[in-house]
Amino acid sequence: MFKLLHISNKGVVRHRLNYGINVKYNILRRMSSKLANAYQPKVVEHGKVDKLCSSADMKGKCKPGTYRMLLPPPNVTGSLHLGHALMATIQDVISRQKRQLGYDVLWIPGTDHAGIATQVVVEKKLLKERGLSRHELGRDDFLKEVWKWKQEKGDGIVEDLKKLGCTLSWDREYFTMDERQAYAVNEAFIRLFEEGLIERKESLVNWSCTLQSAISDIEVETLDLKGPTELSVPGYEKNITFGRMYDISYRIMNVTEPEYIKVSTTRPETLLGDVAVAVNPTDERYQKYRNMPEVLLWHPFREEPIPLIFDVSVEPEFGTGAVKITPAHDRNDFDLAQRHLLKPIQVFSEQGLINDDFKAFSHKPRFEAREMILQKLAELHLLHDIHDHAMQLPICSRSKDVIEYMLREQWFLHCQSMADEALAEVLSGRLQIVPPNFEIEWQRWLENCHDWCISRQLWWGHQIPAYKATNCSDGKTIWVAAHSEQEALIKSREKLGSADIALARDLDVLDTWFSSALLPFSASNWPLEEYKKHYPLDLMETGHDILFFWVARMVMLGLKLTGSAPFKKILLNGIVCDAHGRKMSKSLGNVVTPQQVVQGASLKSLEQELQAAHKAGVLSQGEVKKSIKGLQHMFPQGIQECGTDALRFTLCSHNIKSHFINFDINECYTNKLFLNKIWQATRFTLGAAERLNMPLNEIETMNQVPLGKWDLWILSRLADTLKLCHESFEKFNFHMATGALKNFLYSNLCDVYVETCKRNINLQKPEGYIHCATLATALSWSLQAMSPFTPFVTEELLKHLPPNIDIDLNRFHDVQLEKEISLILEVCQQIRQLKSRNTISKKHDPHLYLYGHNDEACNILQPYLQEIQALTLTNGIHLKAIKEKSKQHLNLFSTAGHLCSFGISTNDSYKPSLGKSSSAHDINEQKLQKLEADLKRYRMRMDNEGFRKSASQEVQQKHAEKIQQLEVEIEKIKSMSS
């Protein structure tokens, strides 16, 4: 038996590549000889979840340092979606790779209470199941129901993350409303309040009349309406039409003849709150009013004058060039009114009803009042044209109500000074954003950072630690912030100089983003000093859509409350869409969960999940119908089982830094088949070792083994693949790493090297033993490199392979050899393509005839004839010089690149179908056209002066070589038809 050279096995093997990296795989395991016939994800993953998700088990002995991350906390509103799966997979891949390099990784898990989202979904559930509103249930009992929901969904999210293979530091798990987090949130509020950065004031906010709460900008969706559109609005039996422009006249008071100024508006119901009409001072239509000391207009409903004002912000091109100013319900109007010292007038109540001040319309819902107002204007002859108008309508993403901009007294955090510091962190280079093009977005948000409304009129959330203190003696009131009523009482007595104090705690809760912004340090037990052991984080990875709403606020509050930025680097991933680039939504029926992809799902089960969501009150019947229709279109045969590893590998096969990531389930299934291909290659290797009676666990080194060219080639490809993987990890280009691994394992190892090995292994030649050892080495090292992406299948396969084969990859990376083998593979590809097009198989006894274009070509091809025969699936191979060519016995003839031409002979069982007799000629003609087009393109590039000046000598030399090769092949293919 052929013996490999051994060295003593020292356990964990390290080798230094010439790429300047240390690679270590801590995989001490027993080898197993049994491997199932095929890859079955469910079987492979069974029993591995807890083991592979324990980060403590993966810590290496040699630690170059710590590496810290925090998982963006999923909301406790349901199961993980594909966006969560993408983020979690990316971070787990980073964690696993860092552990391979020896880092002690801290990756903190947690879940977010998601104030509005969770309250809405529990309210729907209560109404559906028990017919109760939260107000009927009462605050305390309602919060008990929410905590029950949180327990159920929070546990499900943790289970989903573990099923995904995430190696989180589970001993550090938090919930944003647990006791420790609640204390940190209160402490942050108190410090910011006492520094004067948090203030209670009246200002304009996004208001949801259905929720009766202020909401964040991120919870406002914008509907682009092209014209009149009927929409269902909560609280209204009939649909409401939007997308119309109304021209309304205001009568000018202080003129002798009746004059009117016409304004255009899409919101006539806000006319009640108009405090002025504004025009641009440069608008010639209104020049005559510029010289008048004052121009007053008569308000038809309040029956009082309002001024005509001039402001450069008014766009003369919009409508009539005159706009109504309603500062209590429009952001731009609010800013303009402040410049002109105009007092806002509130039209709507918190419920969206007309206020008592407007008797004729009081207590009417706003969109019913709209019709009444339009009717009254028509009677007064003040309503003119009504015409179609494209507009953007703000919608509450939670309640689907139309947003009102309302003046409300709320808590605001002054952000500009903190934003300036956060901007300086990036501009100075201390904080890096990947990809860097988002630095422009960062600058745009932070250079003009408005005050942040941090209060919400909800029951679920962190109740604001602010108390209104009243001096019972003189009625004077102040606000104080404190951890407890007792602490608030002490502060109030000191500030008011009285012992007789009445306290009332604010019932509002804090915006969820406020508590989330503290997580990099609050999750490590801030404000206690121990947080410094784990702060700052090394990386914050999340979606680019929350760059401002979460990431920037973490930086602002981190700098303010700890004195340093909360992380060193920001990695932003794209938004997951479906295969057609559409955002995933219920109406399209293209929403899938990670577990549906992993386990597979029939169309019936997908429909049943939607019906269950309707039964729980989460989805309306209308939403269910739309979703089912979309599902039937997207997944008529359901979803095929793909497994966790294929899901993870597919997610990372996209450029995660792209703006959108189009996830295709078919691609995911293809990757499952790819993993089965690797499985079969491992089975082949184990079978080969068994036939050769060769114990794989005795293979300890490949450094001094007499390897053949194909062995050297596959190890060179391995070296290059590992190098590319390392570079890809450094730049977060995971798609390049997965691409390199897939190309190596599928195209190089399985499709080429395994096929070239079979003959020598089957004949038990000495070379067969080397092939088997080389296969084991290539599989072991490449699978270990792939294990961050596909932990379950690689863990299973690596049980059967020697874990620590010592190999100095520096000496195996051979660019010249790879170039030579590439020429051979190109020849094989051309031959296989022609066979495939003409449906020639083994039963036709195909024999291959190679005709070298010159002596040098023959010399190159001669050593590889055995492998060419194996790779082209032919029964015999013959090499001759081109001058000896004879086409009489050949069924097909063509060129295979610049090295050679080739012909194929078959037995009499091969009968070309109708039209096939001319197919060879047609194929050669098509090939000739393509070759000539390629030659023209290369020549044009070489003739281009700019290319000659900018391209390196190496690139220009490669172009010149390619031109020569194309010329040779064109000459040979032309000679065939002569």
Principal-axes geometry comes out as elongated
State the helical fraction. 40-55%
Oligomer class: single chain
| Overall mean pLDDT | 88
Please count the beta strands (DSSP E, at least 2 residues each): 35
Structural class: alpha+beta
Low-confidence stretches: 1-30, 55-60
**C-alpha end-to-end distance:** 55 Å
Whole-angstrom Rg: 36 Å
Biggest beta sheet summary: 7 strands, mixed
Strand residue content: 15-25%
H/I helix tally = 30
Plain-language structure description:
This protein is an alpha+beta fold and 978 residues long. The protein is built from 30 helices and 35 strands. Strands 12, 13, 14, 15, 16, 17 and 18 form a seven-stranded mixed sheet that branches. A hairpin with a 4-residue loop joins strand 7 and strand 8. The chain is elongated. The N terminus is likely disordered.
Using brief descriptors, characterize the structure shown.
single chain, 978 residues, alpha+beta, 7-stranded mixed sheet, 4-stranded antiparallel sheet, 17% strand, elongated, disordered N terminus
Topology (elements, then pairings):
Layout: E1 14-16, E2 22-24, H1 41-45, H2 49-52, E3 66-70, H3 82-100, E4 104-108, E5 110-111, H4 115-130, H5 134-137, H6 139-163, E6 174-175, H7 179-194, E7 198-208, E8 213-215, E9 220-225, E10 229-231, E11 240-242, E12 244-252, E13 260-265, E14 276-279, E15 296-299, E16 304-310, E17 322-325, H8 331-339, H9 366-379, E18 383-388, E19 391-396, E20 404-413, H10 416-427, E21 432-434, H11 438-447, E22 452-453, E23 455-456, E24 466-471, E25 477-481, H12 485-496, E26 501-505, E27 509-510, H13 512-516, H14 519-522, E28 537-543, H15 547-562, E29 567-573, E30 575-577, H16 594-599, H17 603-615, H18 621-634, H19 644-652, E31 660-662, H20 665-691, H21 709-730, H22 734-762, H23 766-786, H24 791-798, H25 815-837, E32 847-852, H26 855-861, H27 865-872, E33 876-881, E34 892-895, E35 900-905, H28 919-943, H29 945-950, H30 953-976
Parallel strand pairs: 3-4, 5-6, 14-16, 21-29, 28-29, 30-31, 32-33
Antiparallel strand pairs: 1-2, 7-8, 7-20, 9-19, 10-11, 12-13, 12-15, 12-18, 14-17, 15-16, 20-22, 23-27, 24-25, 24-26, 32-35, 34-35
Helix pairs in contact: 10-11, 10-15, 17-18, 19-20, 20-22, 20-23, 21-22, 21-23, 21-25, 22-23, 22-27, 23-24, 28-30
